[in-house]
Amino acid sequence: MEFYNPVHIFAGRGALADLGRIASRWALPGSRVLLITRGMDFVESPVRRTLMEALALYDVREEEFPVSNPDVIDIAALLTKVRGRAYDLIVAVGGGSVMDAAKTLAAALHTDISSTDGLRRFIQQGGTRPIPLTPWIGIPTTSGTGSEATPWATVWDREKECKLSFSHPDNFAAAAVIDPMCTLTCPLSLTISSALDAAAHAAESYWARRTSEVTRAFSLLAIRLIREHLEALADHPDDERLREIIGKASLYAGLAFSNTKTTVCHSVSYPITEKFGVPHGAAVALTLGDFMAYNKDAVSGYDDLLEAFRCGSAEEVKDWIFSMLRKGGFATTLRGCGIREEDLSYITAHAFTKGRADNNPVPVTEEAVMNVLKRLY
Ligand SMILES: [Fe+2]
Q: What's the 18 CA to ligand 1 centre distance in angstroms?
């Protein structure tokens, strides 16, 4: 059994206000901090005010990165923009897109990459060799991606019609700061799709080929918390205690899949998001129940997984997930997502991301993917 996760975790109310003290573990006051946020409504938010007060003793350069599902072109442009100064620390405040961009920058800042093609090659080569990395702190404003706890970053490459993954074993965050004040204004639909993304991270990690007793403990904990509290949070989105619970659940799911990666549900979701614009968490959640049933005979501790979902079968898990999707205003059929029947073959053809589909406990065939897609149509 092997498990490695070096992220220093600071979780709970007040963690954000303590960011100055947290940051000083990696960069002394007065040193240069590159702060990356999503901009837009964040600029006037109480979260930003608390953040800037906490970093008052640092030389902060702030960059807004208001891009969802960033493309390699977007990150190359950001890299060009911030290059030219040395930074002692990167602080990323946002959802998965901001954190994945920051994570890629943490590695690419020390290179002389000056083009999209150069960055594409750098990402594809990944991290088998030691490279200088800038320490970074992840502060999620959605509860779901788990990016603050994993060493890889999703970068889309629409020109090549694929999803890249920048992966380096040392590119974990130095620290993750999970504070419920950061997610209080997260819209209902994003709250639900992000939490279902986290539930998928946990479930897929539970049955992934590299699952272990450590990751499985995190998986079950995450699923229990989401199942027990997500509906209440959807009804009471201002409840800080519930925000804190779901924030921690997302982190626990991140800790689980940081060592196992995800499987077929994520793999099939990528073309659904890339080509048809379905938000990541909703795209993953659509197939979770069906692939849970598909994997049933290969998952040891399957009953524990069902029990964590408070369900008696994968069909009941699917029903609960779909009820949450509807609460968030999401369609629960592919047709409802604006996908045409003839598009199913495109999704199937692009559903086999290396390291994800082949990480499923049961081998995944095109026929199996197509069957699930037809059922969901
Ligand atoms: Fe995900």
A: 28
Whole-angstrom Cα distance, residue 29 to residue 302? 50
Residues 164 and 238 in one domain: no
For 227-270, write each residue's pLDDT tens digit. 999 999 999 999 999 999 999 999 999 999 999 999 999 999 99
Say how many domains are in the chain: 2
Residues 173 and 246 occupy one common structural domain? no
Q: With respect to residue 75, please indicate whether it lies within any of the assigned structural domains.
A: yes
Residue 97 lies in a domain: yes
Report if residue 1 sits inside a domain. Answer: no
How many A from CA of 117 to the centre of ligand 1? Answer: 26
43 CA distance to ligand 1 centroid (A)?
26
DSSP code, position 71: B
At 157-181, the pLDDT tens digits run: 988 878 888 888 888 999 999 999 9
Nearest to 269 by CA among 145, 166, 173: 145
> Could you give the CA distance from residue 103 to residue 34 in angstroms, rounded to a whole number?
12
For residues 262 and 339, membership in a common domain is answered with yes
pTM for the whole thing? 0.95
